[in-house]
Amino acid sequence: MKTRWPVQSASTLSGSGHASDTAPTLLITGSNRGIGLEFVRQYADLGWQVIATCRSPSAADALQAIAKSAPQVSVAQLDLVDHATIEALAAELSGRPIDLLINNSSLLGDRDPQQLGAMDYDLFAESFAVNAIGHFKVIETFLGHVRASHRKTIATLGSTAASHGALRPPAGLHPYRAAKAALHMLIHNLALDLAGSGVRLGLLNPGVVDTRGILDLGPDDPVPDPFVPLMAMIESGELHLIRPSEAVTAMIGIIDHLEEAPALEFLNYDGSV
Hints:
Elements: E1 14-15, E2 25-28, H1 34-45, E3 49-54, H2 61-69, E4 73-77, H3 83-92, E5 100-103, H4 121-147, E6 153-157, H5 174-193, E7 200-205, E8 208-209, H6 231-236, E9 241-242, H7 244-255, E10 266-268
Parallel strand pairs: 2-3, 2-5, 3-4, 5-6, 6-7, 7-10, 8-9
Antiparallel strand pairs: 1-4
Helix pairs in contact: 1-7, 3-4, 4-5
């Protein structure tokens, strides 16, 4: 069962966020759209203090709208490739415990330059910088904040596309799959590092989430590039596409029951391994 918490007090971050002595605090990356935005919405509804980060807060209209209407939501700038922004936010939040850190940001990239024979190696490097190195930098930088909290939880969103045991066609997306596989290894290795520390870790697959409005497309509407190779499986029912609200509700339930490191499994949003 999800728990609601009272909201009170004040914050120095942009937006109308309020800090509280009683409500737990969430810090999340990549919260300007899709899954991240839905995490912000649902945790705010549960009464959590939410520090919602993204690369360009001034352009994050949907996120700013939530922050304007929800006093417990604060918006902050954080770019996984620009490590100075990570360190600056950590310094701004010095002394503030973070009960839950969610590593949500992800760079999928266009499919064509990730194909064998047409590889964009700048994109390859950027994918690792965002999908693996950036997340590890966030964890390392904010680990003290997490350890100082009551819940001591870090949840990271991985991908079935990077799971050796679940790998299946279509091929391609080599940089994305390799970078996410590196992220999986980093989190598993981190679990060994944090054994006995009281920190709880989660590595979650959100499922095939409709972050591009596929379920609402009309018969003549164009399909976003990353979903073109998947449309036949989606339309046949072989691949189950879910809405962000469904995925996030399920993952919050899993996060609520994560165990202390190193008890770590790669879990699907439905709870299966």
